[in-house]
What we know:
Elements: H1 35-42, E1 47-51, E2 57-58, E3 72-76, E4 80-89, E5 103-110, E6 115-120, E7 133-140, E8 146-152
Antiparallel strand pairs: 1-2, 1-3, 4-5, 4-7, 5-6, 7-8
Amino acid sequence: MSGDGRPGDMRPLPAVPGERPPKPRPAPVPEPEAAEYWKAARDGRLVVQRCDDCGRHQLYPRARCLACGGPVSWVEASGRAVVYSYTVIRQNYARPFRDWIPYVVALVDLDEGPRVMTNIVGCDPEAVSVGMAVRARFEPVSEEAGIALFEPA
Ligand SMILES: [Zn+2]
């Protein structure tokens, strides 16, 4: 039998919540077809897929072009985008997100066309607006992945 519950056997109390070090941003476990995207972001580059036949860009990664079914290749994107929509998160009880409150979750339209979900960083959340020009910046989160975030251009 364990001694659970007896006064002398209690494990130390957890640290006071405010005193714990912040958790890092969660890292994705890349699927093979998306590994190129995550690795590029790890290296500070934004890549998207471009159709070899019709030239359309797409993201997230797919095996074939969504428009014409043609083969696709990875190409470097400009990193420029415009805010399509956004919301300011003011409540989140899970770490590390609660450490960032308030923060902005946004959909941005890349110059190349794809619409992606991201965070807008590097400015006050109240300064974000629809149509705002933003540019990519990157946060490494593991040996094999980085996260593309956007900041005012
Ligand atoms: Zn195509």
